[in-house]
Write a structure and sequence with these properties.
The chain is an all-alpha fold and 147 residues long. 69% of the residues lie in helices and 0% in strands.
Length: 147
């Protein structure tokens, strides 16, 4: 199973809603090589389009600024830490897409204030490691209510 997911990530698994849905669960064991080598910037572009994220939102999540973002774009690859964050973000979107069943519904949910997060949009929590885990836990709780 590990090789299948690593291969799918290596072959632009972030291009479409259906591809992203198939990524959950994603963990470091499945993506060690991808993290070590860095994610191709084109994959981030694809993911941003599917997830309806703009550069400002992605820079906020990755803890960078526009200049560094442009440097990564020019180099064509993300460093290890931003790669890890993008893969975690893709995992959250994968879970959310499976849970909500629709790309637009989940993309909107990520950007609106949510009661369980203190009326903070889930996307705003993703600038810190704990935020990734908190949003994933929130989705797991939501899944329990939806079952």
């Amino acid at each position: 199973m590990q090789a299948i997911v690593s291969n799918s990530v290596a072959h632009h698994a972030l291009q479409s809603f259906e591809q992203i849905k198939q990524l959950y669960p994603l963990n470091d064991d499945k993506c060690v090589e991808m993290i070590e080598n860095g994610l191709a910037f084109a994959m981030l572009d694809d993911f941003m389009e599917v997830a309806a994220l703009d550069i400002t939102e992605v820079c906020f999540i990755l803890g960078t600024d526009g200049n560094e973002f442009r440097l990564w774009r020019d180099e064509g690859v993300l460093p290890q830490e931003p790669t890890r964050k993008v893969l975690y973000l893709a995992e959250i979107y994968s879970f959310g897409y499976n849970l909500f069943g629709q790309k637009k519904s989940f993309n909107n949910w990520m950007k609106v204030p949510v009661r369980q997060f203190g009326m903070i949009p889930p996307l705003s929590l993703l600038c810190e490691e704990d935020g990734f885990q908190g949003v994933l836990r929130g989705l797991l709780r939501l899944e329990g209510f939806m079952l």
